[in-house]
Amino acid sequence: MSIADSALLAQGQKAADSDLLSDAANWLNDHFSTQWLMDKVVQYGPNLLGAIVVFVAGRFVARLATAAIVRGARKARMDETLVSFLNNLIYMVLLTAVCISALSRLGVNLDSLTAILAAAGFAVGMAMQGSLGNLAAGVMLVFFKPFRVGDVVDVCDNRGTVVEIQLFNTILLTLDNVRVVVPNGKITEGTIQNYSSEPERRINLVVGCGYNDNLKAVRATLEKIVAEHPGVLQSPMPEVAVSELADSSVNFVVRPWVKSEEYWDVRFSLIEQVKLAFDENGFTFPFPSRDLFLHNPEVGAASQSAPRAAA
Question: CA-CA distances (angstroms) from residue 139 to 53, 83, 123, 227, 271?
Fold first, then answer.
């Protein structure tokens, strides 16, 4: 292409651009006149102003309402993780309602938007059905308080100390220091045993002695051990009684009451003291035993065939 042709092409492009700009300016002058702008301001101005007022005032009220709910949750000693979650969730729900009100005040048709939001909410709910169930269960655990952080519980065949109650899971630390994460839904569906909810617990021991031992002396020894132990509570009164005449032993039940936090220490100490006292007093811990009779057919046959002595 020659230089002259390039110059002609450039001039043609400039002329086309100039015509396009001229047409755009003419269209704007025809459609966006000052009168047109004034008409639109009169038509939509009050609605726009009302929508802005609704949004600003609604957001302010949403913040106040959320803050009041969070303060109430903290006064109720709700788990801080759940408080933070509720803070965000409640504010977003209220802000969504404010936005819908503002759009409605602006004159926007919300029928299609509502249908889309409903469909999206249904899809999300179906996809997160299990997680939402665990979330609802977590809220129930926090509100109804079957256990608290620091309690020793037995849930879903797991026994341990509650470390944290999260939105979807509860974290336990077992007695051998294993960290267990249990879904909240599984906890609320099953049985919860809380060993820390009551200040006192009862120890149930079964101690057997031999049938040849002095029963009264054994009982007096067990009562003395329980009465003198510093960890045993005297109210309620501890119980020592004969519970069973078993196959190999006479069984006593030893049932003292102790503080819940001292349960295992006192239990282990009592078992040790019972063994030492039995050794000191000569009492026996009988092993299961059976009497065994042997029958030899050949010996019986030989005795029958032997000749009798003459009278």
Answer: 35, 10, 22, 45, 42
The helix (run of H) or strand (run of E) holding residue 206 is strand 205-209
- C-alpha to C-alpha distance for 151 and 106, rounded to whole angstroms: 54
The CA distance from 153 to 165, in Å, is 13
Q: Tokens standing for 129? A: 């059905």
| 8 Å CB contact between 222 and 276 | no
Q: What is the pLDDT of residue 175?
A: 86
Classify domain 146-194 by CATH number.
2.30.30.60
Per-residue tokens: 188: 């609320």
Count of Cβ atoms closer than 10 Å to residue 185 Cβ: 20
CATH C-level class of 34-127 = mainly alpha
Note the pLDDT tens digit of each residue in 179-195: 999 998 899 888 999 99
Does the predicted model carry a pTM greater than 0.70?
no
Beta-carbon contacts of residue 117 (< 8 Å; ≥ 6 apart): none
The total number of residues written for the chain in this structure: 311
**Residue from 35, 58, 34, 54 nearest 46 by CA:** 54
Report the CATH fold assignment for 200-281: Alpha-Beta Plaits (3.30.70)
Q: Strand pairing partners for 201?
A: 258
Average pLDDT (138-155) is 85
- The letter for the amino acid at 132 is L
The total of other beta-carbon atoms located within 10 Å of residue 167's CB is 18
